[in-house]
Fold:
Amino acid sequence: MRTVLVVGPDFVPSSTPPALRLRFLVRHLREFGWNPVVVSVDPSRYEQVTDPENEKLLLSDLEVIRTPAASPAWTRKFGIGDLGLRSLRQQWKAIRSICARRKIDLLFFSVPPYPTMVLGRFAFQRYRIPYVVDYQDPWVTDYYAGRPKHERPPKWKLFNAIAKRMEPFTLRRAAHLTGVSQGTTDFVARRYPWLNGVGTTEIPLGVEPGDIDYVRRHPRSNQVFSSDDGMVHLSYAGVYIPGMNGALRALFDAVRLGMTEDPQLFGRLRLHFVGTSYASKPAGQVMAAAGEAGVAGLVSERAARVPYLDALQILLESDAVMLLGSDAPHYTASKLFPYILSQKPLLAIFHRESSVVRIAAETRAGTVIPFDNVNDPPAHRVAEIRSWLTALLRAPAELQPKTDWKAFEQYTARAMSQRLAAVFDRTVAAEGALSARAR
Structure:
């Protein structure tokens, strides 16, 4: 069995999408010939939500090596909070130690946090070990360049300038790129034409079905709503970004339209937005939009992030679930897969080029209302959204998805591990052939 060194500063017990993706990807790798060794950061250095119970979802014998990192209490005095930057020196020290003592066949970097990926180039130069970079989102992006300052991430200009130097340096020697969608890896490949010849593979975010089973066996407390209050609860669990403004406004316009036409029926609707911000002191962006639309009385927002298992509990107690897409076509949503597993009526308002539209259609997991940014913006779909909400309130059984579970199998954590192992096999074989020719 070969060994892959998986470098991910953000890992269990964190509940963030990067931590979840790594857990899903490594869980079944041994079945396909690869033993993962994870290099991560001591959770005491995390700023994000952690949940010790997430540890119970890991393989009991998974080898996880933890490194220190600079304390955010100190680095934030200099404007640095990124976990990748805070742990870069310690992660490199751990990688050097492991590669010097053990046979490592491949290194795998899943980003964000992004700065860590530069260590792949360093390791290649020193040990000639091939490395694969896995993207959840592109690092270098001009997406925020034309947006108002208040919609940009803090220090975006500075960090984008750093990214424009570090990303090409890293990718010059990368053996392969994987990404949560083909749109994501295509975006990176278009920026660097010299990557021609470096393979790319789509590996969707996926989900571990056992997680939902775990919550059903070990229910959590729902702090957001009471499921037996006679109301119809429609929930969104995940981060909210400015690019979703169009979809959110269309949703709230549909609710307002419904309230105007049938206030008694729509008065039973409750919309919940949970974990909408990564900020340490989050502002209620969704509630502000609900207030502008005149539907704030039907909407609740809990902006602070919640643990992953709490989010699953909320999905299971909801009457229906919803997904909002961004105006960035490559944007996809990790939450799609646990939403599908919840087996609730699903409404997705998404850019028609997003992989979410394709996956929802393949699995027949819910209703997708697609849009684009030019000829068919979300505002054109208000009546359609209102009709879906009316059906949810009057006859929810009609919206119960008839999910194609056979089609869904390709998005399970096991299937993700299988795809990743195949990438590893091809990468090692190709590097071996190159080395042989060089000799």
User: Anything to note?
Assistant: The first strand starts at residue 2 and ends at 7. The chain has 16 helices and 13 strands.
